[in-house]
Amino acid sequence: MLLRCLPLFFAVLALLALTAEARPTRGTLLSRQLTVEERGLTNAERLKRGLPPRAPAIGRILPGRAPSAASKYARRSASPSPSPSVITKTFTGRIQVRQANKTSVGFVNNTDTGFLTVDVEKAGTDLRVKIATTASGGPFSLIATNQAWVGSPFVGGGTNDTLAAGSVAVVPIANVPQTSAHAPPTANGASAIWTVDAKTLQLKPHWTNLNGSVVKTTIGYDFQANLLFLTGDIAAYNSLNNNTAEAVKFFLVK
Ligand SMILES: *[C@@H]1O[C@H](CO)[C@@H](O)[C@H](O)[C@H]1NC(C)=O
Ligand SMILES: *[C@@H]1O[C@H](CO)[C@@H](O)[C@H](O)[C@H]1NC(C)=O
Ligand SMILES: *[C@@H]1O[C@H](CO)[C@@H](O)[C@H](O)[C@H]1NC(C)=O
Ligand SMILES: *[C@@H]1O[C@H](CO)[C@@H](O)[C@H](O)[C@H]1NC(C)=O
Ligand SMILES: *[C@@H]1O[C@H](CO)[C@@H](O)[C@H](O)[C@H]1NC(C)=O
Q: Which residue minimizes the CA distance to atom 9 of ligand 2?
């Protein structure tokens, strides 16, 4: 939400700068020192007086929300933006789903519901994806480039469930809103949960729980339901579901 508002914020800021320039002022509003009293004003009060709004604080605590462990974690782990000279690399391909013994069970299917399945019938309806890495180390967002579903092209964990060792909770792999690295999931999930091994091209999930903890994450494949999900404990899932799932790995393949 805050991120979506940023372009608007900068547009307002630019507008303020322009109006400031057009007016005969006591120094431009953006450059002159604000008085102590002015600095204490809320943004609404500032705008009323024609003063620039406060600088945006990404990850700041919203009014009425207690500072959660998650928001503290998000601020602590916020890394500076990589400099323009940092080489970023983009990987593309289909996602091959492999069992522990490296046997392929098929490719991630371009399922139009947005909840991802495996194309076990090799029907040629594979999903194509792209992931761009930077020196930040990630995790990064995975984006579909030929999606059959309506809505966000990002692919990640589709709920805000808490995963843990010993927990039967799972998070389906689905299309999700775009999020940033280490951010706790939105009600509809999180996208920036993937890293890619540049040598093996394995895509690995790293789920951040609502409380900001990063859990050791396994991809589960329920071959009976044809469902791909994230879990912190595949054995716990299996004990509830008659061993209909196995741990699998994702690999990018051309
Ligand atoms: C790989 O493991 C699966 C069960 O997880 C089994 O059905 C399959 O036969 C195994 N493939 C090989 C080549 O061992
Ligand atoms: C794979 O995706 C195609 C296209 O969206 C769909 O028609 C088909 O039912 C899907 N198959 C599976 C196994 O989900
Ligand atoms: C988690 O998601 C559910 C809906 O799926 C929502 O009702 C709840 O408010 C979300 N919790 C948080 C903390 O975002
Ligand atoms: C977050 O939740 C997980 C799972 O319930 C728990 O294991 C962990 O200790 C919690 N971490 C914090 C910082 O509260
Ligand atoms: C597991 O199998 C038992 C016995 O076949 C059956 O009664 C039960 O409904 C199954 N549970 C699930 C979650 O499929």
A: 111
User: What is the distance in A from the centroid of ligand 5 to the CA of 246?
Assistant: 17
**Nearest ligand to the CA atom of 239:** 5
Residue 134 included in any domain: yes
Q: What is the CATH classification number for the domain harbouring 181? A: 2.80.10
In a domain, 118, yes or no: yes
Domains contained in the chain, number: 1
pLDDT in tens, 4-21: 444 444 443 333 333 333
Of all protein residues, the one whose alpha carbon is nearest to atom 9 of ligand 3 is: 187
What is the rounded CA–CA span in Å between residue 157 and residue 192?
Answer: 9
Q: Is the CB of 103 under 6 A from ligand 5?
A: no
Instruction: State whether the beta carbon of 90 lies less than 6 angstroms from ligand 1.
Output: no
Nearest alpha carbon, ligand 3 atom 6 = 187
Give the distance (Å) from ligand 3 centre to CA of residue 87.
37
50 belongs to a structural domain: no
Q: Please tell me if the CB atom of residue 103 comes closer than 6 angstroms to any atom of ligand 1.
A: yes
pTM to 2 decimal places: 0.72
Domain housing 200: 90-253
**Any domain includes 63:** no
Per-residue pLDDT band at 120 (split at 50, 70, 90):
confident
Give the number of the atom of ligand 3 that is nearest the alpha carbon of residue 210. Answer: 13
